[in-house]
């Protein structure tokens, strides 16, 4: 059985991205699969410092050891930031031990937006980055548009159609 890490790809507090990531975590756990959720709010500030390239950062090393290295598969739940991916996600990827963390692994993408496009362009950008890192990206990239209308007060997917599409995407990825 493969270990999956879900990455909530923003460091914004109380984001809709985190709510959707938690829904993916819940649905995967219900299927009896091992899953961890990496919330980029928890990234150490040192990730943004040039010093991280020169020395081992104990806090970031612990994140890599817990969430990145043991994962066989990743689910990137990613909001749209200026037509692309959040800078904090790209920074995390750039400072990671890419070969140990990502090479040869599999990825699934979920785009989040309050507007109409569901971060299609950002998912395309991230696909290029992940392919460069020798990752296999699942074909079913799910854009979730108007996310504020998709979540109920508890942060759960309230639209039956969206929930069914998410469950299908998860089932396909578990088989991938």
Care to describe what's here?
This protein is globular. The protein is built from six helices and six strands. It is an alpha/beta fold and 176 residues long. Strand 4, helix 5 and strand 5 (136-137) form a beta-alpha-beta unit. Strands 1, 2, 3, 4, 5 and 6 form a six-stranded parallel sheet that branches. It is 39% helix and 16% strand. The longest helix has 16 residues, at 160-175. It has helices at residues 16-30, 58-68, 87-95, 98-101, 120-132, 160-175; strands at 4-8, 35-39, 73-79, 106-112, 136-137, 142-144.
CATH class: Alpha Beta
Instruction: Find the structural class using helix and strand composition.
Output: alpha/beta
- Rounded mean pLDDT score: 92
Percent of residues in β-strands: 15-25%
User: With helices defined by DSSP (H or I, 4 residues minimum), what is the helix count?
Assistant: 6
How much helix, percentage-wise, in residues?
25-40%
Topology:
Layout: E1 4-8, H1 16-30, E2 35-39, H2 58-68, E3 73-79, H3 87-95, H4 98-101, E4 106-112, H5 120-132, E5 136-137, E6 142-144, H6 160-175
Parallel strand pairs: 1-2, 1-3, 3-4, 4-5, 4-6
